[in-house]
Design goal:
about 230 residues; alpha/beta; Rossmann fold; seven-stranded mixed sheet; six-stranded mixed sheet; 13 strands
């Protein structure tokens, strides 16, 4: 049986600055082999050239075999590409648009197959929430919304929990109004590592950063560190 891993990053990492690459080192440490193969999927940023450049700079420093998938120029054989990787890393940006493109190309099913085979799924922001049943996104210009995601793991996720001032009030509000029961909230410079769908580990690569489960109990809001 394959070990399944998701590393969902709330914000930060190579997309902002190369820095000491702490979370990137953590992700590749989950593959116990030299020169792991990692593929970057920057769909949510419209295949940003600068984002791809930062990816190559970061993971080449860590002795990975690097590649990426484009959707806004000619697109290669996705199944062949994805299923030969050790790690998938999904970049941030517009989650709703990203998922729409993926579904048009059947990438969501290919990624699910890869996840079941033990290929590590990771990413930041849009690339963090996409693995859950639902995610809280700023894909829309003037408001946060809850959207359906891939459903690899249970729950609703919110990134940038301490980085964007409207995130925590929004989560509290939708729980108070019983629109959702609970939410997994990931701070910037923090990641949630989910192993085999059941084990949860909070990975702090900032300064005392956390992941939380926010929920309602006896008519009170609770914020529990994962």
């Amino acid at each position: 049986m394959h070990t399944k891993n998701i590393v969902a990053i709330g914000g930060g990492g190579f997309g902002r600055s190369l820095g000491s690459l702490e979370i990137e080192k953590y992700i590749i440490s989950l593959i116990r082999k030299r020169n792991p193969k990692i593929c970057f999927i920057p769909t949510a940023s419209g295949d940003s050239t600068l984002y791809k450049l930062n990816f190559y700079r970061a993971f080449s420093k860590l002795d990975c075999i690097t590649s990426h998938i484009d959707f806004f120029s000619r697109t290669e054989n996705l199944e062949e590409k994805v299923l030969t990787q050790d790690i998938i890393f999904v970049g941030g940006g517009n989650t709703k648009s990203m998922l729409a493109v993926w579904k048009e190309w059947n990438l969501h099913n290919i990624l699910k197959n890869a996840y079941e085979k033990g290929i590590i799924m990771s990413g930041v922001s849009a690339g963090a929430i996409c693995w859950f049943d639902k995610g809280i996104t700023d894909s829309f210009a003037h408001e946060l919304k809850i959207i359906d995601c891939l459903g690899f793991v249970d729950g609703i996720a919110c990134p940038h929990f301490d980085e964007e001032k409207d995130r925590e009030p929004y989560v509290n509000d939708v729980i108070e109004r019983e629109i959702i029961e609970s939410c997994i909230c990931i701070e910037g410079n923090c990641a949630l590592h989910i192993k085999n769908d059941l084990e949860y580990y909070s990975i702090d690569f900032g300064d005392g950063k956390n992941c939380y489960r926010v929920y309602r109990e006896n008519n009170n809001l609770k914020k529990k560190i994962l």
